[in-house]
Design brief:
heteropentamer, A alpha/beta (252), B mainly alpha (299), C alpha/beta (258), D mainly alpha (315), A: 252 residues, alpha/beta, Rossmann fold, six-stranded mixed beta sheet, five-stranded antiparallel beta sheet, 10 helices, 36% helix, B: 299 residues, mainly alpha, MetI-like fold, binds adenosine-5'-triphosphate, binds magnesium ion, binds phosphate ion, membrane (chain B), Phosphate_PstA (chain B), phosphate transmembrane transporter activity (chain B), MetI-like (chain B)
């Protein structure tokens, strides 16, 4: 079966000042699949994830060589960064709602992209909250501050906020690591649903989670990809000794 | 012999507590003394009537008004500039030579003695413009004094907004400027407001920078005249004007009224009460805004 | 500039003249609604500088402009002599001495005599309180009371304005300074010099030598409000009442000239 | 294709980014312009003493003869040493009084009782900051001056030559020490607060008492920050004008003791500038003093940066 | 075989303000053994560890009920806190050397406990550094700042610093979680050596690590001990379903 590529990188190198955080990373990310990135702390997972929507632009002194393509367009010179980030949404490790009402949190994205009609915004807010399985819990308190929600609810709010700008790809950087087991399960279920309409790339430090939810897994070490394959294969018979050591907990 | 560490610890702790107590006591005495000395003058008549230089019974109406007006005028000038510069420093400045230069300038300006800034104001806003002593020149000089402070407050307030919030906005495809205007500034408001009220308090009490710019005396004002172009209108920024702090200094140095001492006591009491008011105000506002942003109340 | 505002003028300078200028301005404004006159002290030097620079409309001075400004600058100013003022040596009220000879005064201010007991008082240290070198009061006092002798700079406490001098003398035991008559009241004690009491009469009849003309300088001819205000001060109404009430000496009463 | 996206980018960019960005950048740069013009104007006036009046800068800095008109003792001279010495000694004295007190307060606020520190002492310090300098001067004049005067009068071991007016170097330093303590204390608080909790935990876990931890770990680790506060305090003391002028007696002679009258650079400017005729030697010399003040306060900033550089070197 | 108890707690409850972080914790800690504490984030592992040397005293608003015994003495009222902490040393998650020289770091503890003799201090420093397997790497640079060491070296320095005050118990809170695999191995080896002379209690989020180095393991959940047993037993046949779920990565 032929793979449908949504995103791919080629020989990506990234330097923070003089330290190299990514080395020749070449990865293909399939459409409507969940791709997991695993590896020990500091190996460059978050850094790699952020190259995909150019969030590294925020950091001073970053130098990037190599290419990232989204639907065949080079993200670093053929796409405007604003358009790119509209298409490639991101969910962070710690839920980070704006200190505004729940409604305003979700309407924020559409608004900055020019949607003004109140009824249109209402619609988007509802749809996104339904999409992130939060609607029932918050529909009566849309005007209340988002900071009053629980951690798990906040994280789903952040997912809804991303969905509201109708992205094609959703990047998630350890989205459940700050959450309790129950919320974690809810979000994992949500990811499973979302992959029907979105392409998802997720960083996780929890090997079992990677095993449960992803289709493909990339194992990073010291900024390099050690192994990239179908999740099942990686977890059952890794071809690299280091992958095996990591998965069995010899380090990390 | 070695004192047991636990005992040394107790002794040291006691000393620290005593010193802290002294500090609090000092403030209580300080404020108490001023208010007690000025108590006979703390009435509406004193607060609203004209100062008198020869006979007794003068008040501090115009100086008090001038101080407030000075705060308003200088804030109108220094706030937009300082906030902009603060935004630039917090959000756009790359670690280049120029940024280092700006930072040095901010620090240098902030550490300049206010008398030096007063002289600069005298030279540029009074002599070179040919405007003579006037409120606006004073406000300009005070703005120079304030600018580095407001810049720093704005920069800090914006920097203190969690990075995660900024990232969230950018990741949604907002431009940097949109993020600043729609997310960072609103989130920074509690810090900004507190800082600005404190700064206003500083303007309110400034004297050295004003002696040579807005002057040490004014003429009688007509408080029913709201035409800012009319010379007797209190709103006219081109009139010479003494602020409350300058007034105290002047009463001390050339006070000829028989009750000069009492007038200065009264004015000092009013000033110290204002200092407390500014402080309490900033606390209340800061608390309210913080609560609002922490999601304790509806938005 | 200030001259552009027809209905408002500002005045600064001599602190000796301040009481008169200030009170006259109040009266004038009360009589002429809409006119605004702001008066401040600052010292004769400041008055002359500021009027020359156009910072104020009238510069008050105890000394002739020529003594302070460069000749070409002084030429641009117009002198209006409005009255004369006497200057008295004053001491703290606890000083037992009432009279000093000129020489004693000079010796005190030049630091040769440092204790009151040497001039007939108690055993008490003399504390000199001086004005800045650009004060007109000081210049006059130095010229006519000290006969031009240089004060012992280092020994003196220095105060900015006549008001402060009055206050400091009243608070400091054994202190001596000098004040225009307009600042004399029960808080300080004026001294006789060579037996002559410092009064306006003695100034007018020439027996008391320490006095100066009070000048109101304008840049060029006075016009508008500036002119009417100076005219007002020179009017009999002011000269006969306010001027004498504030212990200045009307010009027409002066029997001696300088 | 590539050009197409470039066009799109510029539309976004101008509308939602470039405009705002340009404005704030301009005002950032404006601060440089302001500083430079400030330095330029003060310098050009301040240099006149040396260029126009041909006074020697060496004499200005190191001679103590300040007589702008000239008298029987010689022609006009503007040696500012008395003022410089006065400024330095009064600031140092204030620093000596204030620093231990401020550090103690900052330790109390961060280590002994952070709760009281935040709820009580923080506001107290902020109020001390907010009190206008003329009010400090006024209290100094009405409380401290009479008090010191009484004190010097009562002291039997002072011979008759002592200044008993109450206006003295010490009075000024006391007033200043209250004015600068909030600066030193709050910078020290920041420095102590910025220390990683780790240090404290590590020390306690080794069985150290709180005082041992403070003295041997926390204060040494925060020392660069505390020094920064001290320098800032010094700068503030140096630049304070009115409060000092009101209480030090303004005597143009070297003080022989802390009970003697003194004069400072700011004080002489405050007193004489109004009287000085612009363009004369006196006025120019006062501007030179202002220029010197400016240079010194810039030097303080450089010192602070040096301290800061040392700190980052340690880390 | 009879167990030799070094430390034990009885019905320990701990409240941060009104939230309870430990609930009825009763644990026996054997002498010269390594006891591992595992459990998901926020379950109270660190909190528990800190009750053993009263580091929680530093936190405002803490209320503790129940008992902690060291060698039969109640830690909260029969022992002076300074003596307690001398006997019960602690190594933290992030290496936290003082900003002083390597030598000063180690000499700090002995100094505050009254040792002044230079030669005695030299001796202690050397012995402690040898004990923490760091001596060879740093013996030529004892006067240099400890902050210049690598993370792994810093952590061993911190262990040496603890050894210098000759404790009987060493508490370790995730001592390797900030370290690279190599340093981790070194520290694990060190722990193995240390247990001959010390009683060690270690918190770890790495199950494999717990399995490798500990003799006994306690599994915490929501402030309670779910299961406490020999490590082998816990990992091979946990008696509680939640323990099993956690160990197999169903959550956490
Ligand atoms: N802004 C930055 N400046 C300098 N170095 C950085 C920066 N961000 C990350 N690094 C370094 O780059 C390397 C990769 O970091 P990254 O955050 O991508 O790791 P990670 O795999 O996400 O780790 P974790 O699991 O801890 O999140 C690390 O060595 C880190 O120290
Ligand atoms: N100082 C404190 N004040 C209030 N609550 C605290 C404090 N320290 C910890 N807690 C709370 O107590 C609970 C237990 O925290 P603790 O740090 O012991 O967890 P942990 O098991 O060590 O977690 P982790 O694996 O993340 O280190 C958590 O809910 C935490 O939020
Ligand atoms: Mg990461
Ligand atoms: Mg923990
Ligand atoms: O009147 P004078 O202020 O110049 O002494």
């Amino acid at each position: 079966m032929e793979k449908k590529l949504k995103l791919y990188t080629k020989d990506l190198n990234l330097f923070y000042g003089s330290t190299q955080a990514l080395k020749n990373v070449t990865v293909d990310i399939e459409k409507n699949k969940v791709t997991a990135l695993i590896g020990p702390s500091g190996c460059g997972k978050s850094t790699f994830l952020k190259t995909l929507n150019r969030m590294n632009d925020l950091v001073n002194n970053v130098k990037i060589t190599g290419k990232v393509y989204l639907d065949g367009l080079n993200v670093y010179d053929q796409l405007d960064v604003v358009d790119l980030r509209k298409k490639v949404g991101m969910v962070f490790q710690k839920p980070n709602p704006f200190p505004m009402s729940i409604y305003e949190n979700i309407a924020y994205g559409p608004k900055i992209h020019g949607i003004k009609s109140k009824s249109r915004l209402d619609e988007i807010v509802e749809k996104s909250l339904i999409g992130s399985a939060l609607w029932d819990e918050v529909k009566d308190r849309l005007k209340q501050s988002a900071l009053g929600l629980s951690g798990g609810q906040q994280q789903r709010l952040c997912i809804a906020r991303v969905l509201a700008v109708e992205p094609e790809v959703v990047l998630m950087d350890e989205p459940t690591s700050a959450l309790d087991p129950l919320s974690t399960l809810k979000i994992e279920d949500l990811i499973d649903e979302l992959k029907e309409s979105y392409t998802i790339v997720i960083v996780t430090h929890n090997m079992q989670q990677a095993g449960r939810i992803s289709d493909n897994t990339a194992f990073f070490l010291h900024g390099q990809i050690v192994e990239y394959d179908e999740t099942e294969k990686i977890f059952s018979m890794p071809s690299d000794k280091r992958t095996e050591d990591y998965i069995t907990g010899r380090f990390g | 012999m070695r004192i047991k560490p636990q005992i040394a610890d107790k002794i040291a702790t006691t000393i620290f507590i005593i010193i802290a107590g002294i500090l609090v006591l000092l403030l209580v005495l300080f404020a108490g003394y001023l208010i007690y000395q000025g108590r006979s003058k703390l009435n509406l008549n004193f607060l609203t009537s004209e100062p008198k230089s020869i006979e007794a019974g003068g008040g501090i109406g115009p100086p008090l008004f001038n101080s407030i007006y000075m705060v308003v005028l200088s804030m109108m000038m220094s706030l937009p500039i300082g906030l902009s510069a603060g935004i630039y420093m917090a959000e756009y400045a790359r670690p280049t030579k120029m940024t280092r230069m700006i930072r040095f300038c901010i620090e240098a300006l902030a550490s300049l003695p206010s008398i030096v800034i007063g002289l600069f104001g005298f030279l540029v806003f009074v002599q070179m413009t040919g405007w003579s002593f006037n409120l606006l020149s004073g406000a300009l000089a005070v703005s120079v004094l304030n600018l580095p402070v407001i810049t720093r407050i704005s920069e800090d307030a914006i920097r203190n907004v969690p990075l995660s919030v900024k990232e969230a906005s950018l990741a949604l495809g907002a431009t940097h400027w949109q993020t600043i205007v729609k997310v960072l500034i609103p989130c920074a408001i509690p810090g900004l407001v507190t800082g600005l009220i404190i700064t206003s308090g500083r303007v309110f009490g400034e004297a050295a920078a004003l002696i040579f710019t807005s002057g040490v005396s004014g003429y009688p004002l007509d408080f029913t005249n709201f035409n800012p172009l009319d010379s007797s209108s209190p709103l006219n920024p081109f009139r010479p004007a003494e602020t409350l702090a300058v007034f105290i200094w002047k009463v001390n140095s050339e006070g000829t009224a028989p009750d000069a001492r009492m007038v200065a006591d009264g004015a000092a009491a009013v000033l110290i009460i204002c200092v407390f008011a500014f402080n309490i105000l900033s606390r209340i506002f800061g608390g309210l805004l913080n609560k609002r942003f922490a999601g304790k109340t509806n938005i | 500039g200030p001259s552009s505002k027809e209905d408002s003028i500002s005045i600064s300078g001599s602190s000796a003249l301040l009481p008169l200028a200030d009170n006259a301005a109040k009266d004038y404004m009360a009589k002429n609604a809409g006119s605004k006159i702001s008066v401040q002290a600052g010292g004769s030097g400041q008055g002359l500088t500021q009027v020359y620079q156009g910072a104020v409309n009238i510069g008050n001075s105890d000394v002739y402009a020529e003594e302070k400004l460069k000749p070409e600058e002084a030429k641009e100013l117009k002198d209006h002599v409005v009255c004369a003022v006497g200057i008295a040596a004053v001491v703290n009220t606890n000083v037992k001495v009432d009279n000093l000879t000129s020489q004693q005064l000079i010796d005190i201010f030049t630091g040769k005599i440092t204790n009151w007991k040497d001039v007939g008082g108690d055993d008490m240290k003399i504390t000199i309180i001086n004005r800045p070198s650009n004060s007109g009061t000081r210049a006059t006092f130095k010229k006519y009371a000290l006969k031009g002798a240089d004060e012992a700079e280092g020994m003196a406490l220095k105060e900015d304005q006549s008001g402060t001098v009055k206050q400091t003398v009243s608070q400091t035991e054994g202190s001596i300074s000098y004040l225009a008559f307009s600042y004399l009241d029960e808080k300080t004690k004026p001294l006789k010099i060579d037996g002559v009491v410092p009064t306006s009469e003695n100034v007018a009849n020439g027996t008391y030598p320490v006095w100066a003309y009070e000048h109101m300088y304008t840049k060029g001819e006075a016009t508008g409000l500036t002119k009417s205000f100076i005219d007002y001060i020179l009017s009999d109404e002011v000269q006969n009442n306010l001027v004498t009430k504030l212990k200045f000496i009307p010009i027409k009463d002066m029997k001696v000239k300088r | 294709m590539s050009t197409n996206s470039k066009i799109k980018k510029s539309v976004h960019y101008i509308k939602k980014e470039l405009f705002g960005r340009s404005i704030v950048t301009f005002f950032g740069i404006f601060l440089i312009i302001l500083t430079i013009s400030l330095v330029f104007f003060i310098a050009s006036k301040g240099m006149a003493t040396f260029i126009q009046d041909k006074q020697s800068p060496i004499q200005f800095l190191f001679s103590d003869r300040w007589d702008t008109v000239g008298d029987s003792r010689g022609g006009p001279a503007v040696g500012a040493l008395v003022f410089i010495f006065g400024s330095v000694s009064i600031s140092m004295l204030a620093l000596m009084i204030s620093t231990p007190f401020s550090i103690a307060i900052s330790i109390f606020m961060t280590e002994i009782s952070p709760k009281l520190g935040k709820k009580l002492l923080q506001p107290v310090i902020e109020i001390f900051v907010g009190i206008p300098s003329v009010v400090y001067g006024w209290v100094g004049l009405t409380v401290l001056v009479p008090f010191i005067s009484k004190f010097t009068l009562m002291m039997p071991f002072f011979d008759g030559s002592i200044n008993t007016t109450g206006k003295s170097l010490l009075t000024g330093a006391l007033v200043l020490s209250i004015m600068i303590f909030p600066t030193i204390a709050s910078v020290s608080v920041d420095a102590l607060k910025a220390l990683p909790r780790d240090y404290k935990e590590a020390s306690f876990a080794l069985g150290a008492t709180r005082w041992q931890t403070i003295r041997r770990v926390l204060v040494p680790a925060a020392l660069p920050g505390i020094l920064t506060g001290v320098v800032l305090g010094l700068a503030r003391a140096f630049g304070e004008a009115l409060a000092v002028q009101m209480v030090i007696g303004n005597n143009i002679l070297f003080p022989k003791s802390i009970f003697d009258r003194a004069n400072t650079m700011t004080s002489v400017i405050t007193m004489e500038m109004g009287n000085a005729v612009s363009g004369t030697l006196e006025s120019n010399a006062l501007w030179s003093l202002a220029f010197l003040l400016l240079i010194i306060s810039f030097l303080f900033i450089v010192v602070i940066h040096k301290i800061g550089a040392k700190r980052s070197f340690v880390k």
